[in-house]
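Local shape tokens

___
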Amino acid sequence: MRLSLKPLLALATLTLLACGGTEAPTTEDALVQDEHALVTCSATCANGGPLSCTGNSCSALNNSHVVCDGQYTYCPPPPTTSNCALLGNFCENLNGSSCSPVNSSRDCCIDGTPDGNCICRPNGRWLCTL
């Protein structure tokens, strides 16, 4: 009794083809799959707040910005420092001190805010709101 291997070989070949074969994915296939992976970038702004974005590609620079897929998002500008930090700008310290030119005016600080005003009087002295 003689057995032929041809039908068995044909069956094995058809089974492999039906299952997609034994070929490994190419590098190109792997790259296409990785292009759809999302990444997140984060930065810390000068005000201490976080800034982040998510995209296919990104970069970040602390105290400045984040970039995702070419779109920039910037940190808010730092708060302006008030001249009220200087004692010489307080209305109570300016009031009665010398000034020039006569009739000029300037802002001054009341309770740490620049809400006051001084006017240079004809006698060359500031008259300030207290």
Observations:
- Confidence is low (pLDDT under 50) at residues 29-33.
